[in-house]
Amino acid sequence: xxxxxxxxxxxxxxxxxxxxxxxxxxxxxxxxxxxxxxxxxxxxxxxxxxxxxxxxxxxxxxxxxxxxxxxxxxxxxxxxxxxxxxxxxxxxxxxxxxxxxxxxxxxxxxxxxxxxxxxxxxxxxxxxxxxxxxxxxxxxxxxxxxxxxxxxxxxxxxxxxxxxxxxxxxxx
Length: 172
Fold this sequence. Notes:
Layout: H1 3-23, H2 25-53, H3 57-79, H4 81-109, H5 114-135, H6 144-170
Helix pairs in contact: 1-2, 1-6, 2-3, 2-4, 2-6, 3-4, 4-5
């Protein structure tokens, strides 16, 4: 099986998963929280192992502490996914707002030409998303992460399919 076929299959599967996530955003929110929890858990373990191999006591202590924080976050997200959904939604809303303010500030103060407009529009969109998430909090927690996951899956699916078709067309 050639690479473009594998990429096409991955793209189609991603599109299907994105549609399923859009159809049930609450289940997708729980899934996203569990994925984040397991990621934190695994990264925490890796961080601790890497820290124990580090040279110097300071590097070991800081590395182990950071690993423990990631490990504890992961355990909490996996053990209590509903609480994790609420927490991650709050973090997402704050990050949308903060990144929007930062992009708008850069657009107003430093950028020139078309970059300025793009930054200001992107910043405005991020601010609006942040306000929408936080204004409807905690009700928005039930669907926000699932919708974000669905959009990401759909975007990745379209990109993978387009790349697969371009790769196929470019082959001699």
